[in-house]
């Protein structure tokens, strides 16, 4: 861990949301639609480093139209959740892993590093200021989604790393990511689009990867599917990940398999946590290449009994169907999650929400 250099002091307070308004949002938060009253900002300047750290009222940012991010997409982000436990204390899950990934993403996008202590300090400052927005997590999966991001705010049209960068943190109450809740989702395999390629930005959490997934997402919706699943760009043969989450397959013999990190897959914190939890749940985790053909054949033969997607936003979401141009296979029960996906989801949520003991030191108090 590192020493903090920034002090996120509150420079402007607002009481935008009334208590009744906030209660209504918290009762049915959905995902990513409403934001808390404040946000964090900091600015980095070449030669000076980070400064101007503050907590201020949530609201529009002022950007020059020539701000580099609007042209060349020099931007990265993270996603975490804050959970209110039964005793009222508020915790987040493995934020050091997000801080480390933020640093790796920054390196890939030629953005400045932020110290882990400053990253964590920003989370604490915002959660402390907007503490009333953290939902009760003693039942269900409600949380306050934390979205840190960093972008090239310098007004300059030349293509080079920006000399001025803005860090911002916003927060949004979150229920389940998919509108259908815990119902199994269906996946579409795009013939036309890849998400990332060898040597590209696939392993970085940058906005551009998500922009690249959207055309495939439209294709998925046109075929009645919820998400697209991307194959490796070289051979179009191996499963990589979904538009915004990682994927696991459950085998009848207890193996729990996820695509190995190929350099173009996002290294999900939920993904790596599930790989660790698996052993406690009598599952045998494996990271390796999984061909589309293996999924198809395994689902048909019954060797693959379940599939699920995972991510901070999605937690664990069962996958019921895999669809491509000309065919489809089904995995697991169709109306609800399979046994293994449900067990993993509960095990993970129980730790995050304080319903069970955190024996791994995964939680950090905010
Ligand atoms: C997350 O799971 O936190 C993500 O960043 C995925 C995004 C599609 C919401």
> Which structural class best describes the helix and strand composition?
alpha+beta
Helix content: 25-40%
Q: Which ligands appear in the coordinates? A: 2-OXO-4-methylpentanoic acid
Distance between the termini: 16 Å
Individual helix count = 8
Q: What characteristic shape results from the CA principal axes? A: globular
What is the averaged pLDDT score? 94
Number of E-state strands:
18
Question: What fraction of the residues are assigned to beta strands by DSSP?
Answer: 25-35%
Residue windows where pLDDT falls under 50 for at least 5 positions: none
Radius of gyration: 21 Å
Order of helices and strands: EHEEHEEEHHEEEHEEEEHEHEEEHE
The main β sheet shows up as:
9 strands, mixed
Family: Belongs to the class-IV pyridoxal-phosphate-dependent aminotransferase family.
Cofactor: pyridoxal 5'-phosphate
Catalytic activity: L-isoleucine + 2-oxoglutarate = (S)-3-methyl-2-oxopentanoate + L-glutamate; L-valine + 2-oxoglutarate = 3-methyl-2-oxobutanoate + L-glutamate; L-leucine + 2-oxoglutarate = 4-methyl-2-oxopentanoate + L-glutamate
EC number: 2.6.1.42
Description of the molecule:
Helix content is 25%, strand content 29%. It has helices spanning 19-27, 69-72, 95-108, 116-129, 207-222, 269-280, 292-301, 339-352; strands spanning 9-10, 38-45, 49-57, 75-77, 80-84, 90-93, 143-152, 164-174, 185-189, 227-231, 239-242, 246-251, 255-259, 284-288, 304-311, 315-324, 327-330, 363-365. The strands form 2 sheets. Strands 1, 2, 3, 4, 5, 6, 7, 8 and 18 form a 9-stranded mixed beta sheet that branches. Strands 9, 10, 11, 12, 13, 14, 15, 16 and 17 form a 9-stranded mixed beta sheet that branches. A hairpin with a 2-residue loop joins strand 16 (315-324) and strand 17. 2-OXO-4-methylpentanoic acid binds at residues 79, 244, 311-313.
